Amino acid sequence: MACTRCGNHQAFSYDRVTCTCGGSLLVEYDMEFASKTMTKMAIQSRSASIWRYKELLPVTSSEDIVSLGEGWTPLTYMDIQAIGLPVSHVWIKREELNPTGSFKARGMSVAVSLLKERGARYAAVSSNGNAASALAAYAGCAGIQAYVFLPEDCPPLIVQECLSYGARTFRVKGLIQDSGQWVEVGKQLFGWSTVATMKEPGRVEGKKTMGFELAEQMGWKLPSVIIYPTGGGSGLIGMWKAFHELKQMGMISDPLPRMVSVQDAGCSPLVTAMGKHVTVLEAPAATGMRVPRPPDLGLLVRILKETGGKAIAVSQAEIDAAQRNLGYRGVSSSPEGAATWAGLLKLCEEGWIGSDDSVVLFNTCHGLKYGKSPGLESVPLLSNLNELFNKTS
Ligand SMILES: *Cc1c(COP(=O)(O)O)cnc(C)c1O
After folding, report:
1. Which Pfam families does the UniProt record give (predicted)?
2. In angstroms, what CA-CA distances link 148 with 123, 168, 221?
3. 211 shares a domain with 166
4. In terms of domains, do 271 and 164 share one?
5. Is the pTM of this model over 0.70?
6. Statement to judge: residues 164 and 279 lie in one domain
């Protein structure tokens, strides 16, 4: 593993991922060895999952791979001509189509495979919701008992989802960092393995595959802008790492996309760290973007600067409007996914994105997971034809 801050190398470790200098340690591979078998041609005939890139994933034996078919999600072209956005092309990466309905499946497939490899019996995570349900599913599949800690305002369907996959499920007062202490206690007292982001090597590596897929699906080209809803930031770190790895292997030559982090105006530590003040008008909603203290803010700032990207905040009203907009285009978007559309509109308006740009948005989760109640009262109930004519005229 190599430190992203001081460059020092250390032996691979399942749970030591912070360097003595405080920087994050990321997994390194023998690129020359990997490029012997991971060729553009060879991977074409492999499984439609993240494991098509197995040379650059840290699991040694294929028997330990815990997979539910995560990854290889569609990259859908969006017809934006009709609304006159001044952009060349827009695609949306359909991460809601992953197992458990979010891109968190990618990271948990790798993290749980590593747990299986080391013979772990218990795994725990404190999460805003999607990491918890993904851990629940993958741990269940591997015969590992999951313990998940959720904020008290976690969307009810996600809580139910965790239960249905067999996780011991708890709600905790406060935000994600407050429930982190429960995991630490369980680690000390009961020997749980923690799968918090940037606390073990698997999750960043799994999320990295979004970058590989993007390149492969675009014919080994890259868009000029990526808009990604950012919480802890391991998705962004993963994709940045993926692009560098593909470059090292000579599989892509385009410059890295300008990476844009979208955050909730009520919780936007990355926007602040990039030197911008955000006027907070409302409390942040319970979404994957609500992470007040990302584990390696310094690295995120470096990535945004290195790629010429930026961090922006969007309001709840903008997210709501974007969700409707994507809905009318047939895409069920979570608040986080919708935030990327809201970000696109904002950056077009500012002129930061222009007619030369090709943009990829990430719909990180399915909208249905955030439903509060079915709300059947608002849907007309018909008992005869006359009512239909009355309602539609
Ligand atoms: C976790 C999560 C995010 C934030 O992703 P990071 O890679 O942790 O920054 C965004 N959207 C959804 C739906 C999430 O579950």
Report:
1. PALP (PF00291)
2. 8, 6, 39
3. no
4. no
5. yes
6. no
